[in-house]
Amino acid sequence: MSVPSVVVHRDADVLAKAVAARIITRLVDVQSAKGSASLVLTGGTVGIATLAAIAATPARDAVDWRRLDIWWGDERFVPSGDKERNETGAREALLDHVDVNPERVHVMLGPDSGLTAEESAESYAAELRRAARPEDHGPVPGFDVMLLGMGPDSHVASLFPGMPALYDTRAVVAVHGAPKPPPTRISLTLPAIQASREVWVVAAGEEKSGAVRLALSESGHVQVPASGARGRARTLFLLDRAAASKIPPELGRISSP
């Protein structure tokens, strides 16, 4: 696993725009090198603001959206179109405004599919297995970029501190009794997250600062799930100044204006 690098931006608005520019550049580079690319989306305020920033910039046209696979790190187990779904937010902010290939937008199914949460998790795991290539050396594709938000409790995706999903070695699990609503969710596990080539943890706000500090320390992933959010080739913590305010000086960071 890679050692995290930290990039700090002035505020949440600048952070979202900077992450949007970084995503576009990365996707263009990957598509130039190998023809297609894969991106794992997250929800949350900054995650959706980042997608809206991509939609708002003319630079978005540099990406070949038809040659991009879109995945999600987690999803609320509520019906399609529900405002609480990460998918709904992503479609409204970005996906409805670019020419994506619907067959390459991989959604986590909700209860309106007729599946239980466990069946939805297995369905997504099967989709991941079908997309994995021999060079991925496992049941999950080596995602080019995985975006992850982080909660004040240090949760990433729907992996909350101390919950059974953090011990699970499957790629995708159903989560019940989540400490924030809705209580039932579908989530990638840490092994699936760690299969990514690059993992970018995006966080803004002073309420996240303690979790950021712990996630960059030697804390165990059972109590601090974000400490297990690491990519094979690269891990970035993309923060605003408030979220970075408790990082010890010895960890170092790169600040932008």
Give an overview of the whole structure.
Helix content is 27%, strand content 18%. The protein has helices at 12-34, 44-56, 86-93, 117-131, 190-193, 209-215, and strands at 4-9, 37-41, 68-72, 74-76, 145-149, 172-175, 185-188, 198-203, 234-240, 254-255. The strands form two sheets. Strands 3-2-5-8-9-1-10 form a seven-stranded parallel β-sheet. A three-stranded antiparallel β-sheet has the order 4-7-6. It is globular. The two termini are 29 Å apart. 44% of the residues are buried.
User: Oligomeric status of the shown chains?
Assistant: single chain
How far apart lie the N and C ends? 29 Å
What is the molecular shape? globular
The value of Rg in angstroms is 17 Å
Strand elements, count:
10
Question: Averaged pLDDT, please?
Answer: 96
Stretches where pLDDT is under 50 for at least 5 consecutive residues are none
User: Largest beta sheet, briefly?
Assistant: 7 strands, parallel
Question: Could you give the order of strands across the largest sheet?
Answer: 3-2-5-8-9-1-10
Number of helices: 6
Question: What fraction of the residues are assigned to beta strands by DSSP?
Answer: 15-25%
- Helix fraction, binned, reads 25-40%
Structural category: alpha/beta
What letter string, H or E per element, gives the SSE order?
Answer: EHEHEEHHEEEHEHEE
